[in-house]
Amino acid sequence: MAKLCLLGATGTIGDNTLAVIAQQPEQFTMVALTAHRNVDKMQRLCAQWSPRYAVMADDDAAEQLQQRLKHSDTRVLSGLGGLNYVATLAEVDTVMAAIVGAAGLLPTLMAAKAGKRILLANKEALVMSGQIFMQAVQENHATLLPIDSEHNAVFQAMGGQNQARDLKKIILTASGGPFRQKTKDELHHVTPEQACAHPNWVMGKKISVDSATLMNKGLEVIEACWLFNTDSDKIEVVIHPQSIIHSLVEYADGSFIAQLGQPDMRVPIAYSLNWPKRLNSGVKSLNLTQMNALTFEAVNRQNFPCLDLAYAAFKQGGTACTVLNAANEIAVAAFLNRQIKFMQIPHVIEQTLSRMDNQPALNLQAILAADTQARATATALI
């Protein structure tokens, strides 16, 4: 029986993880659930799953939850210390890392150092600290399984390995988001509501905007480089509007191996929860005879410059990817708050990168310092 810690229980990945577990509850024990500040939802989840620990990243929210759960057996913790504690518990063997953004870096890194089986839905952990994170995984014999549908597809196409021999190219597919067919002039006037209305996937606001700008795909390129020990020159991004083929691997002999499935995060979650065996995800099967044509397009890099910014940051190395991620988080938040326009998001990121000196990413302190400075620089630009 797997003993789980779910970091980010109230988000979309958390919802889907719990939905998969509900299909076969006898195979899992929920040791810890964590959230940011959604007290109402956490109260309901604790009543349903009876975790030993519940952690709120927000201290005030933790106090509220403690009052509501004072007659239960669930112990409420708070802050980064609480997150790190449950991610490294001896009784936990599997950590679902689903905290959005840079906030998920430290508890996920701590889980790696504790040698846990990590289901990685937080791509920022690798974007910000790829070398340090992968070193922690290797030195502490942790198991790292990708949850992003694209990386999970590549992992499956490689036969359940993080590195493949004779690999020629990794092809990450992208839906193109809600603005794939808009002109550059039209993109200047899109709203946060439009950016969050993804045509295929149900996601949170931040990742929905990242999908609309294609920064999400840029972050996935960086993540793939670390996960599969390859260079960005071997990673190609193509638009696949149907979101049925989740990614492909090309081998030296000309063979292409792809993973297909419904655009539903329960599929990669179910695969990773019980890897190398498979679980019932609860997802409806594809009906191949009723599918329309599967199409592919090149990325319009003029309209979506965030992708090239990500490629350039990875090539630059050092703390550039940390700066890229931090500036993007600040810019996306500003767009959602209607402080900047959609097409100003890449401008803020580019200007932040140009105004900061790139430093060697020698340790976690250097990475966190670059993250803090980049956020201040991006905020000042906005």
Description:
This protein is of the alpha/beta class and 382 residues long. Helix content is 45%, strand content 15%. The chain has 16 helices and 11 strands. The chain has helices spanning 12-23, 39-49, 59-68, 79-87, 105-113, 124-139, 149-157, 184-187, 192-195, 205-213, 215-227, 266-273, 306-316, 320-336, 344-355, 364-381; strands spanning 2-7, 28-35, 53-56, 75-78, 94-97, 117-120, 143-146, 167-174, 235-239, 245-251, 256-260. The chain has a 7-stranded parallel β-sheet with strand order 4-3-2-1-5-6-7, with helices on both faces. Strand 6 (117-120), helix 6 (124-139) and strand 7 (143-146) form a beta-alpha-beta unit. Helix 2 (39-49) crosses helix 3 (59-68), helix 11 (215-227) runs parallel beside helix 13 and helix 14 (320-336) packs parallel to helix 16 (364-381). It is globular. The mean pLDDT is 95.
State the order of secondary-structure elements, H for helix, E for strand: EHEHEHEHEHEHEHEHHHHEEEHHHHH
State the total count of DSSP E strands. 11
- Name the beta content range: 15-25%
The Cα radius of gyration reads 20 Å
Q: Which regions have little confidence, pLDDT < 50, spanning 5+ residues?
A: none
First-last Cα distance: 49 Å
Average pLDDT rating? 95
Number of helices: 16
Question: Which structural class should the secondary elements be placed in?
Answer: alpha/beta
